[in-house]
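Quick illustration, no need to memorize.
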Amino acid sequence: MPETTPGVTVNERLHQAVVAVIEDCDGFISREALAGSLTDDERREMLRGMLLTRATDNRLKQFFTGGEVRYGTASFQGKGFRSLGQEAIYAATMRLRRGPEFRDADGSWHGDVISPMIRDSAP
């Protein structure tokens, strides 16, 4: 059998493939466990935040391309930073702050402050 990867023996390549399949299976199980741990309210809150992030990003882009951002009488010449495709950052950071120790008696949350950076413009 010819080498599929130069300089790597068939046995070593087979071992690498087996390890990759095991890691993929572990990752799948971990993702499914996480997905199963989310409540319907958490899913809705995450979706709301991601949609709000996309809407904010789209509006900011309109500001920049429509000449609404001005310095004196001149239009801003930059393009702005887009967060397009980065909306899930909101959901991930929101999920990290959750835990019963951060829930107040009235149902609101407290804990660490999460702040966006450049493309992470989640509200």
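The mean pLDDT is 80.
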